[in-house]
Amino acid sequence: MTAKVIDGRKIAEELRKEISKEVEQLKLRYQTTPNITTIKVGNDPASNLYLRLRDKACDEVGIKSNHLEFLENVSEKEVLESIIKLNSDKNTHGILIQLPLPNHISQDKLINALDPKKDVEGLNPHNIGRTLLGDENIIPITPFSVLTILEHEKIDLEGKDVVIVNHSNLVGKPLVALFLNRNATVSICHVFTKNLKSYTFPADILVTAAGVPALIKNNHVNNNAFVIDVGIIKTKDGICGDVDFESVKKVAGKITPVPGGVGPVTVACSLKNMIKTFKNCFEEK
Ligand SMILES: NC(=O)c1ccc[n+]([C@@H]2O[C@H](COP(=O)([O-])OP(=O)(O)OC[C@H]3O[C@@H](n4cnc5c(N)ncnc54)[C@H](OP(=O)(O)O)[C@@H]3O)[C@@H](O)[C@H]2O)c1
Fold first, then answer.
1. CA of 68: how far to CAs of 60, 78, 102, 200, 275, in Å?
2. In this predicted model, what pLDDT tens digit does every residue of 190-235 receive, in sequence order?
3. What is the number of the ligand 1 atom nearest to the C-alpha of 233?
4. Which CATH architecture best describes the domain 32-115?
5. Closest ligand 1 atom, CA of 169?
6. pLDDT at 190 (0 to 100)
7. 221 CA to centre of ligand 1 in angstroms
8. Spans of all domains in the chain
9. N or C terminus of the chain: which is more exposed, having fewer CB within 10 Å?
């Protein structure tokens, strides 16, 4: 038996259709178009590509996507001031900060300056705190896409053994909270984990986001495992994830490919978060 390969592009397409309908209704209800601004510093090619994909998706569902672009040498103070202005601008319904930022600008300072109501990425400490306390409002986009894939496959998380290989603020830490909020039993692994296989093998659900090609091989997973590969690594042969896809596909129950798995769902989940921030601007949350 080979694993069911999850088609992230198809899931994203379904999501965009639902989001389009919801945006249409919200425009009528609030008599305005959702208007989102991305702050971008410098000219990172990967960021430019990601922005183009997100703009296209916004356009498809009827969300207006603006960019506020700064040169690489802009001061932190200037970027912070622009965030303060956007926070109080009634016509801005959501703000994103495109990463990476140059070294002289603190990512944490910018994220902390965001009005939590308008924080599309769900990374402001207020939103992370709400997620941790089980009062989820805007949840970080990549963890949200992992949950969305599991929901799409109708996986009941209660009592499931989940293993996450990543303990970053962006992926692993919020994911732990989201799985615990759904009564799963969660283990989190990282570079200091002594015997990775001893954790990953029994897992019902394995989420990996290490950024290490072929970290997860066929002897790391069992026959029923749902393997979700968040890793995105650029190699000379193209993009790959953490999972040795061809060998793991032969043993796992379900698997997401890279590319075409988590990535497209992440873009669609950013649109879902834009809807949340848009609503937050009109309904006190
Ligand atoms: N699909 C998407 O939409 C999406 C979104 C965001 C990120 N990503 C991808 O996900 C990956 C992680 O992103 P990130 O920002 O979270 O990166 P990060 O901050 O570098 O986190 C990587 C995590 O993996 C752990 N790790 C690294 N090598 C390991 C190993 N050999 N064994 C066990 N654990 C290991 C690290 O542990 P230590 O901290 O202890 O070193 C860390 O917790 C990257 O490939 C990134 O491109 C994808």
1. 21, 12, 16, 42, 20
2. 999 999 999 999 999 999 999 999 999 999 999 999 999 999 999 9
3. 45
4. 3-Layer(aba) Sandwich (3.40)
5. 16
6. 98
7. 19
8. 32-115, 141-263
9. N
